[in-house]
Amino acid sequence: MAFTNQTVSVSKVMEYFYEVPDYQRGYVWDSDRVIDLIMSAIEHFSVSPNTNYFIGAAVFEQKEGHPNKYYVVDGQQRLTTIFIIVCAAHNIMRTLGAPTSSLT
After folding, report:
1. For the chain, what are the domain ranges?
2. Which residues contact 71 (CB under 8 A, 6 or more apart)?
3. Measuring CA to CA, how many Å separate 24 from each of 17, 45, 71, 94?
4. CA torsion 21→8→103→46, rounded to 10°?
5. What are the average pLDDT values for consecutive 10-residue runs of the chain, which has 104 residues?
6. Pairing of strands 17-19, 69-74
7. What is the CA radius of gyration of the chain?
8. How far apart are CA 88 and CA 81, in angstroms?
9. Strand order in the sheet with 59-62
């Protein structure tokens, strides 16, 4: 099995399908952990707008026979939190009448 190290954007991560293997624990982040993640990003961009922000590492294993599907080996809590935040923001923007083209 070949390993690669890549830096990717959140929007790129959202292009794939992820599966959490049964051996992974369930989602356990409480609101304090979620707030810490959000505040860290806000603080970074308030000081350094238009720069990249390192959310953290994640490890994926490509699902055999499925080029766009990956098992989440590490980083499941953070990845799940990011998906929840992005989906919530998408729903809020849609509710407020944002143009559909700005939601993708």
Report:
1. 10-103
2. 18, 19, 20, 21, 60, 61, 62, 63
3. 17, 32, 10, 33
4. 120
5. 78 89 93 96 95 90 92 93 91 87 64
6. parallel
7. 15
8. 11
9. 17-19, 69-74, 59-62
pLDDT of amino acid 85? 92
Residue 67 CA neighbour count, 13 Å, CB half: 0
pLDDT at 76: 94
CA distance 75 to 67: 20
Token pair in block for residue 38? 């959000």
What tokens does 74 get? Answer: 């590490």
Please, are residues 70 and 50 in contact by the beta-carbon 8 Å criterion? Answer: no
DSSP annotation of 57: -
Say whether 50 sits in a helix, a strand or coil: coil
Contact (CB, 8 A) for 42 and 95? no
E strand map for the chain: 17-19, 59-62, 69-74
